[in-house]
Amino acid sequence: MTESKLSIVDLTKRYAAGLDPAVDRLNMEVEEGHLVALLGPSGCGKTTTLRMVAGLMDPTAGSIVVDGKEITHTPVNKRGMGMVFQSYALFPHMNVEQNVAFGLQMRQTSKSEQKRRVAGALDMVQLGHLSKRQVKELSGGQQQRIALARALVVEPTLLLLDEPLSNLDAKLRETMRTEIRSIQQRTRATTLFVTHDQDEALDMADRIAVMNGGLIEQFGSPTDVYERPRTRFVANFIGQANFLNARVLSESGSAARGETHYRVSIDGLGQFGAVGAPGLTGSAHELVIRPHRLRVSLQPAGTETIAGVIERVNYTGDALSVAVKAGDRVLQAQMPTSSGDLPRTGDAAYLSWNEQDAYLLPTPVKEP
Ligand code: ATP
After folding, report:
1. What is the C-alpha to C-alpha distance for residues 191 and 175, in angstroms, rounded to an integer?
2. Does 98 have pLDDT greater than 80?
3. Within the chain, how many helices (H) and strands (E) appear?
């Protein structure tokens, strides 16, 4: 096995005695060259984790290892990390070139080397032509890119980004996502990226650490956490999900990715196909189905459908979401839009799915 670029071992932060830990024995391995998103709701401990990795805050317990060397208590200026925070915090009295050169000056890099590397970093963010501009004469997106150039110019051991896009408007945020990702891939800078925006994480990251209450609930690729959430929290936090209580009846063969096909029974609705980890037996598990993976038919369509009534229709031009009431449950589904008649509240609807799109969460539902 290759050695990780960054290992975080049982990292814990308690801000004060008597308080719950903000980060609670967190473990994570980051591969060289990967961009890892720390994703989770407000207060789950993302920033606290990043600040401990940066050396801006002392952990209460645990360790941080970079390139096989423990740096848990190494001072921030000896860690060689590049950081970009929410507010880009450029030095307002310096021009672009001086801002980017700052870290190199601190390291007493020679003048000629500084010049070469600053030019290289500015080219990287495509702002070489603005090198003499004052910071206040730059747009938000340009300032953001300069902050990135300033972090990258020192060839950091790790690049740490804390919600760097949150001050930008929606359009620019999309553009900057692509830019940051492509710069990160070109420089192969191992990067930790804090965000609470699931689209941003899915779009940019090699791996996502979904955090909740100071812990990582799941660490995996974007498709892992989206398609195969390990917990209800993860399924809910990353995109929309329908949850149905399903009792496992029998196995019906092996599925792709080492998973198993199951027959399940959903109370009052009948028997259906689903997939899940091997070895699930007897008990009730939550079945996760993404709204866009539910097929909606307005006519009865074969067996293994859930019959219901359309309760609500939301039309946004490129998408049509419908809420379908079936018994005492309401399921969210999506339909292709067309210029024809829209389905209406009160219409009958029949829901079905491909077996591999209905995923049983691995932990059984706690029964009363
Ligand atoms: P956000 O997305 O809102 O920035 P976050 O996931 O980055 O949230 P943290 O800032 O790491 O969360 O905070 C984690 C927990 O620690 C929260 O409950 C927060 O209230 C608490 N906390 C953060 N800083 C301090 C502090 N200086 N003193 C006491 N508690 C703190």
Report:
1. 19
2. yes
3. 8, 20
> Higher confidence at residue 341 or residue 334?
334
Task: Evaluate whether residue 1 is within a structural domain.
Answer: no
Number of Cβ atoms within 10 Å of the Cβ of 77: 11
- Asked whether residue 303 falls in the same domain as residue 278, the answer is no
Beta-bridge partner residues of 331: 324
Cα separation, 177 vs 203, whole angstroms? 8
Q: Indicate which residue's Cα is closest to atom 29 of ligand 1.
A: 15
Q: How many domains does the chain have?
A: 3
- If we measure between CA atoms, which residue out of 145, 142, 129 comes closest to residue 180? 145
Is residue 332 domain-shared with residue 359, that is, in the same domain? no
Query: 274 and 324 in one domain?
Result: no
Q: Residue 160: which H helix or E strand, with range?
A: strand 159-162
What are the distances in angstroms from CA 75 to CA 46, 56, 62, 152, 301?
20, 8, 16, 20, 65
Q: Is 47 in the pocket of ligand 1 (CB under 6 A)?
A: yes
Residue 1 has pLDDT above 70, yes or no: no
Whose tokens are 């919600």? That residue is 163
Q: Which amino acid is at 131?
A: S
CATH classification at residue 300? 2.40.50.140
Clarify whether residues 23 and 141 are in a common domain.
yes
Query: What are the angstrom distances between the C-alpha of 95 and each of 71, 176, 198?
Result: 33, 22, 35
364 in ligand 1 pocket by Cβ < 6 Å? Answer: no
267: pLDDT strictly greater than 60: yes
**Closest Cα partner for 325 from 347, 292, 299?**
347
Helix axes 140-152, 111-124, angle to 10 degrees: 130
Query: pLDDT band at 158, cuts 50/70/90?
Result: very high
**pLDDT tens across 23-74, in order?**
999 999 999 999 999 999 999 999 999 999 999 999 999 999 999 999 999 9
Does the C-beta of 46 come closer than 6 Å to ligand 1?
yes
Residue 196, ligand 1, Cβ within 6 A: yes
Residue 161 lies in domain: 6-231
In the chain, the amino acid numbered 253 is G
